[in-house]
Design a protein that fits this description.
By secondary structure, the protein is mainly α. The protein has helices at about 45-65, 70-75, 100-115, 125-145. α3 packs antiparallel against α4.
Length: about 150
């Protein structure tokens, strides 16, 4: 090969010949630094940290507007306190007129908020479910003892 021309020391395509030249294509690969986390991970609040605020939230909801012990009113407003990702469908008082309608809605609510049913939820969701379950159960006990 003629190495006397303007491209001497380079291979046929203008890249350094495989002779150890300092071309970027011949440099040994450098190890990549380990990836850095893009966001800081925050620990999920503990049950003890969340308990006072959630208990107060549910208590306020239960006692608002004379709802305490009123199963119909609690079921009709449960969407105000349940977590957004739940499968609960809000209902109006007009859907809770007969005792069989109330019992059906209560059973549906229990399927969502029963502590054994909220297995994949966050600590907050589990705590909300537990408090809702307790409030609904207390109101149901009053409801089933009322004359129909």
């Amino acid at each position: 090969a003629n190495n006397n021309g303007p491209f001497s020391g380079q291979g046929a395509f203008g890249f350094g010949a495989n002779t150890g030249s300092s071309s970027p294509f011949n440099t040994p690969s450098q190890p990549h630094p380990p990836p850095q986390p893009t966001t800081t991970t925050t620990a999920e609040p503990t049950r003890d940290e969340l308990n006072p605020s959630i208990t107060e939230k549910i208590k306020t909801w239960t006692e608002k507007g004379g709802r305490k012990g009123n199963l119909r009113a609690l079921l009709a407003t449960m969407h105000e306190v349940i977590w957004i990702e739940s499968t609960w469908t809000p209902m109006g008082l007009h859907e809770l007129v007969t005792s069989s309608q109330v019992k059906t809605a209560y059973r549906k609510a229990n399927l969502i908020v029963h502590p054994d049913k909220v297995t994949g939820g966050t600590v907050e969701q589990k705590l909300i479910a537990q408090r809702l379950f307790e409030s609904l159960r207390e109101s149901y006990d009053i409801f089933k003892n009322e004359p129909q």
